[in-house]
Design a protein that fits this description.
A two-stranded antiparallel sheet has the order 1-2. Helix content is 69%, strand content 1%. The radius of gyration is 18 Å and the shape is globular. The chain is mainly alpha-helical. The protein contains 13 helices and two strands, in the order αααααααααααααββ. Mean pLDDT is 93; it is low at 272-284.
């Protein structure tokens, strides 16, 4: 039972990464139409990367199944994640495709496994935050784009987002997605969810590439499109992001995480089964 549920968790985690990359159009991000503001990324590479992470997500789920977070578990979580990063880099020839997603989606895998699949919203985010707050003495002391932005601008990044219990998923992307799914077609609902993230998140990927001006531009444009939504407006924003060479990678990671949580809760509410595994999830 434990192994089967953990496999389902990993299956859904990878599926969410596919769902994010295949969403088209996306401003400045890889999709089915173009590579966004990237020369080293493409759709095929993103898919290969996502598939390579299945084992990582499975091992994270297996480790945390039925367990309350401890410092030791946090350090083991970090060890699995760093091993997953190396597997990703091997597949992508050292291109960073999903490092941020390993962190955010990995934490949700752990949170779902902790409750043996029986999660509720926003408790799943609170559980993920509880794990993220614990210390990991093994974290390498090396600079990253996110840390550089934090040092230069005093801006929190992916680590803090998780430690705070993913406030941008709780306040913006998840509510937007759940509401939009009833008022819009699937494509529009997903794009509105992405725009909700871009318009509210201090995306360190955007700031790293274009500074605070780029962040403010992206937030304002995304908010304007949400008020007067059209696919054409999203396509226009994609061109503008590419011209400015900016990309909302942090928003993309949270979008995939939002899909993961929503899909899990929705499917488990229907009490679907995988062989002997049948999990029902509360919708609290």
């Amino acid at each position: 039972m434990r192994q089967k549920i953990c496999k389902v968790i990993a299956d859904e985690a990878v599926a969410a990464l596919f769902e994010e990359v295949e969403l088209t159009p996306k401003p400045g991000l890889v999709d089915l139409h173009n590579n966004g503001s990237h020369v080293d990324l493409n759709h095929s590479l993103m898919c290969e990367s996502a598939l390579s992470l299945h084992e990582t997500f499975y091992n994270i789920a297996l480790l945390h199944y039925g367990k309350t977070p401890t410092t030791r578990l946090r350090e083991q979580f970090g060890e699995i994640g760093r091993t997953g990063e190396q597997l990703m880099f091997t597949v992508t020839n050292d291109v960073n495709t999903h490092k941020g997603a390993i962190w955010s989606i990995g934490l949700i895998c752990a949170a779902i496994a902790r409750r043996k699949g029986n999660i509720s919203f926003p408790q799943v985010l609170e559980d993920a935050g509880e794990l993220a707050k614990l210390s990991d003495r093994m974290i390498p002391n090396q600079p990253t784009n996110g840390l550089n932005v934090k040092k230069k601008y005093g801006m929190p990044g992916a680590r803090e987002e998780a430690q705070y219990g993913f406030p941008h998923i709780r306040k913006y992307s998840y509510p937007t997605y759940e509401k939009a799914r009833f008022n819009h077609n699937p494509l529009e609902a997903k794009l509105l969810t992405l725009l909700a993230l871009i318009s509210n998140l201090n995306d360190t990927c955007l700031v790293h590439r274009g500074g605070l001006d780029a962040l403010e531009f992206a937030k304002t444009e995304a908010e304007n499109i949400m008020k007067n939504f059209s696919i054409e407006a999203v396509e226009r924003l994609d061109r503008e992001f590419q011209q400015s060479w900016i990309s909302p990678g942090g928003s993309a990671d949270l979008l995939a995480t939002t899909f993961f949580i929503s899909n899990w809760i929705t499917k488990q509410q229907r009490r679907f089964s995988y062989g002997e595994v049948s999990v029902q999830v509360s919708s609290e």
